[in-house]
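Re: the request from the purification team.
They wanted to know what the chain is likely to look like in 3D before they choose a buffer screen. I agreed to run a prediction and write the result into the notebook, where they can find it.
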Amino acid sequence: MSDDTAHVLDESTESYERAREAIDAGSLVVYPTETVYGLGADAIDPDAVERVFQAKARDRSKPLSMAVSSRTAAETYTNPTERERAFMQRFLPGPVTVVLERNSQVPDALTAGRDRVGVRVPDRDATLALLSHVEPMTATSANVSGAESARRVAELDDQIREAVAIIIDGGETPGGRGSTVVDVERGQIHRRGPKADDIEAWLAEY
């Protein structure tokens, strides 16, 4: 599928509205974050989530995370403890995925049947503006599983381009690694990335 089919748009209110329309229709979009480009779909629509797994050729036993526009929005879909709220107050928005207890709105398809879900609040104004139009979105890198993450639209794999309706081009993303994934209640960092040392120190102190 060429870029004439997967529409490449700039970061603008009109683009976000078109992305919302695409996601509402069950399609996928590529969007920039402060780390790498993400692959977005309606995170509470099991069929849309399945399309993300197909596009990435991802093992269904590996859960996906979701992105929301704020800490308050995160609590619409999760049941954080006071310690987790304190952590989110300190580190979100930011390049961090917090693993929280999900509520009944979050489908098994997203979490691979687990009772917890990873939540992102990206530290990028344009991404937050997009999320204000459509949330929650899936928060997973826009690459085929096992391949390098994309920091520029030109680096997107053809398999991803063919799977999406819209690509929002925000230029080169500033971060080269995926977010740090942390389960605050269990005191575990599942994937080290940006701010991992600061998070480790916070977990030790609190």
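For the purification team: The two ends are 49 Å apart (CA to CA).
Please add any questions underneath this entry.
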